[in-house]
Automatic annotation (TrEMBL):
Gene Ontology molecular function terms on file: GTPase activator activity
Lineage: Eukaryota, Metazoa, Chordata, Craniata, Vertebrata
Listed GO CC annotations: centralspindlin complex; cleavage furrow; midbody; nucleus; spindle midzone
UniProt GO BP: mitotic cytokinesis; mitotic spindle midzone assembly; Rho protein signal transduction
UniProt key word Coiled coil: yes
Coiled-coil portions: 7-80
Keywords attached to this entry: Coiled coil
Protein name: Rac GTPase-activating protein 1
Length: 138
């Protein structure tokens, strides 16, 4: 009777362990599917960041190009003889205001928009989005 009771206890323990193993495999399958979906999202996010970075660089290059043109126009206008009547007094005051306030700071070469740098730097940094596969082994 004791041997039969031991066999029955062992059988029930084996059945519980099989059920636990089955649940663990199901959970593992769900987690692996979720991980795969997250990896796909990460890949898309990385691609989107790359596209946005390229757009940003193109826009910054275009901005610098336009600023250089504006600087040349400004310098050309400032070189004009004031006695020729090309510019009115109001236009001269507007240009002087632009020269002091806007062009002096805005046309420095290689500058970046501080609003973009401050608000999006962490979003656009590739180092923040790196993924190390060695953690998967753990």
């Amino acid at each position: 009777i004791q041997i039969a009771q031991c066999f029955e206890a062992t059988r029930q323990r084996c059945r519980r362990l099989e059920q636990d193993g089955r649940r663990a495999r199901e959970q593992l399958a769900r987690v692996e599917a979720e991980r795969a979906a997250l990896e796909v999202k990460l890949k898309h996010a990385r691609n989107q960041v790359e596209v946005e970075m390229k757009k940003r660089h193109r826009a910054e290059a275009e901005l610098e190009k336009q600023e250089r043109k504006l600087q040349l126009v400004f310098e050309s206008l400032m070189r004009e003889p004031w006695g020729s009547g090309v510019l009115s007094g109001e236009q001269r005051s507007v240009l002087s205001a632009l020269a002091g306030r806007r062009l002096g700071a805005a046309l420095t070469p290689g500058r970046r928009s501080s609003a973009v740098d401050e608000s999006c730097q962490s979003l656009l940094s590739h180092s923040d989005i790196s993924y190390d596969r060695t953690e998967d082994d753990v």
